[in-house]
Design a protein that fits this description.
The structure is a homotetramer.
Chain A: E1 3-23, E2 26-40, H1 43-47, H2 57-71, H3 76-90, E3 94-111, E4 114-135, E5 139-152, E6 177-187, H4 194-211, H5 217-231, E7 235-244, E8 247-249, E9 263-266, E10 271-280
Antiparallel strand pairs in A: 1-2, 2-3, 3-4, 4-5, 5-6, 6-7, 7-10, 8-9
Helix pairs in contact in A: 2-3, 4-5
Chain lengths: 282, 282, 282, 282
């Protein structure tokens, strides 16, 4: 056959970058995993193996390190914009650049009650996210968080759902709810105060998770999205992916014991998966 | 604010199912991880916590096991269709069902030169994939493979690419090429002979990977897609995601040693990532 | 042949237990992964398939949940002792019980500046460890920490090592040092104040890591062990396993850029691995 | 305090090595992860930060690559011996060297019914293992396999075990048995025909797993060890670590369905863990 090339992109993923900024003795660190992807006219590379228009992915990696040295890292959204603009400028036949950044979080240590100048502890699996998509006509910035694992031991119910022939789940007005929040929000402008927006949105997620009387994961999801939009005027929508990390009540009846929400069995498979977008109303 | 609910879905992921079929003493096994996702009118579940229209994800899990008992598993595409049709029938306000299946591959053992009736060895991380998306008006079946890890020690070059100020990669006419193939193809009809199509498509991928004189991952990708379309009339397009699993030539010059493609350093980060769709020409 | 059964044990691993304790509205959580292993006279189970002396591993799992309900969890060292004593009592021909506990760490959330009564955030991959080994004659308690990932951006050197024909590493008086601390200490008595010992030992590790002027990972290891022994009279020795999580200085010279410890490449493979025991001097 | 340094070692882990050997057009590949650990007089490195006696772990890595170029890889046991002898020779105050090798398995592809000269497919997570421990007086070679995942759908029972107040598991005369075999055997001499021993031992494990009528994992373990010793005169003992990868019978009774060993739920947590050594009788 003679086939047609459809949508395509290529780039470098998993570029690990650790940047140290110094303000006198006080060091600030940024630990990123960066991915670069280019779209454009790369048809002959595919169809006849002509690499004349290909920027090597090794070059993309080098560029990330050089840019970090030249310009610093700052907020990941800003570093993403810097990179996206560079690659649009570097290769004329690139039509779209996508930069994806995960920022790994380190907490400054305290020693003897004082913040340490240069020692840090890794603060879990939570990642701050930044995505920049740029064409020659527009720039879109998204930001977010993933693997933000949270749990509440009460204040969560699940009742009133459909009972069909395959339904065995008992209703409950009091259960553990746990999830690993992945939330990505779209910004209305690329020059927002990204550090402040991120902090406000993340706090909104946590505040609502903790305090909202939940009837389901969907119910909590919507309330979190609504509050992010409420607190962050520069955010236009929030997309969520929330696994329901089930904690099953252990059945202790065979041993003559009750279990008033004391002993649970955390499970990893299977898991509920709730995904939705919450948008600012027109 | 008063926010709007956008696109949303929910369901159960990570449903682990192991099915044994018996033909006399000879046992056949199917080892699946199934995900169910429903779309439809679930707005009040999100906005006011009303679960009256919610089929519990625990019920979805139960249904998968019951369906496997009642109907068997067969080809994963067919089991996916069975499940999709069930859930459309079970909940009137569901508009779209997505079933995603990973089939884990077991190889029958041979003992003393004879195929064993009931003992199996896990054949790696490769997974057969099946995706069914069904609405009340249409059914789409996709199939594929992922984590099919392949490597060739010669027959791969990378030359003639852009040299910009950040390019340091030397050109090579002979390198190791390795990838973990993820390929998903779309079928033109849901009643194809799914077992045969899968086998033919997978063989096409492997044959081309092995024999195609490669100028780049893109070049190999296109050739693989073209050959799948060539051999499989029921396939309309193939989508690839191919990480370039770099094997770097070890620099032995400091020790007075040459290295004519003998000693390599496999690396995991960073990695090239090449993604494209190859479609049947009109 | 007629073979001999050597050292053997069996048990249940990966027992996931989540326990909620309530003090009025304020909830405390304990999230454990427990392993139980029994040694004793289990020879005929192996040699002739006689299970008459086997306590099923499923029963061990049930017992962990029942004990958690009956006695609570408390400090993991104490829960381990409780379990070990139970299994010694339950099966007469068991000679040794080993209980291994990983405690996953959750941090209480703060909302609006106040500690929340029942909402928690997972605080990373760090695990508190407790190991109890009990025979009918003795009990040994060990405690520790693993996956405590720390990094310092200065205050670490590596110079003066052997230069042989295969040495290419440049000396440095200022590098990043990063590791995932695994430290397990032995207690001189099983009735120590386990919560206090754990807190003091963990703080000693962090304080020394941060402030000690390091000539190597070995140098830091010894200083950390020495300080744990200094601060914790109930500890007799500390065993360390410290991967050297290398952060390589990016080579920016090809781009005409210097790199005065600003841009680093974190790597995962290969890694140095430094292991040693530090003991209280006689 | 003034602490004492106890047992200690250091080295490089996770050294990834891919070696290509050529016999005309036909290529052979070896894909190894190597770890080097040295013991000896390294006290002052720990206590006062004196690195004069330290061979950098980076140098160990370089040495592995240089040795692979100079001598080839061959059987991993032999490559381990080569490395161990080198490091004993290179550093006078090293008293013991431990080399640990995982060999990742690649299968040669067949294209059009013929073995391909240079294309390979990764054959799963199974690893061949080789461990060499060498002092100035002795050499010990161990070999083995790990992550060899096997499953049988019948021919496995579990009955007659202790029933105590926490026992709920029903007895079964027919269940799925699945495990990931980790078996490490000790060789009586370092110059055995390592390729043949490995092949014979691995086949013995698989043959017995498949055909042995099993009363428990312990029962199968012993039979496998006995057969390895039977077929391999150069092996003196076999150490096993066998997780019981439980496949639970799905409870379909709530849906009015029976389940005569047809539908199972594979689980990962918790898991039984059976460990034992089987030795050649005197």
């Amino acid at each position: 056959v003679s086939s047609t090339l459809g949508a395509n992109s290529y780039g470098k993923s998993g570029i690990r970058l650790f940047h140290v900024a110094r303000d006198g003795d006080r060091h600030e660190v940024a630990d990123l995993t960066v991915a670069v992807a280019l779209e454009g006219d790369f048809e002959t590379a595919h169809t006849v193996g002509d690499n004349a228009g290909i920027l090597a992915t090794d070059t993309m990696k080098n560029t990330v390190y050089a840019m970090a040295r030249t310009h610093g890292v700052g907020e990941p959204e800003e570093f993403g914009l810097l990179l996206a603009r560079h690659f649009l400028g570097a290769v004329a036949h690139v039509s779209r650049v996508r930069i994806s950044i995960q920022q790994h979080v380190w907490e400054r240590m305290s020693v003897g009650g004082h913040e340490h100048t240069h020692s840090f502890r890794k603060a879990g699996e939570e990642k701050r996210l930044a995505f920049v998509t740029a064409t020659r006509a527009s720039e879109t910035v998204e930001a977010g968080v993933e693997d933000l694992v949270v749990l509440k031991t009460t204040g969560s119910a699940f009742t009133g759902y459909i009972r069909d022939p395959f339904t065995t789940l008992p209703e409950t007005t009091d259960r553990i709810m746990a999830t690993a929040i992945r939330a990505v929000w779209t910004l209305s402008r690329s020059d927002a105060d990204h550090g402040s927006v991120f902090a406000a949105a993340r706090t909104a997620l946590l505040d609502v998770f903790a305090d909202h009387p939940s009837e389901s994961v969907q119910h909590t999801l919507y309330a979190m999205g609504d509050e992010v939009l409420n607190r962050c005027p520069d955010v236009t929508e929030v997309r969520f992916s929330l696994p329901n990390k089930h904690h099953l009540l252990a059945n202790l009846a065979p041993f003559g014991l009750d279990n008033p929400n004391v002993v649970f069995v955390p499970t990893t498979e299977p898991y509920g998966l709730i995904e939705a977008t919450v948008r600012r109303a027109e």
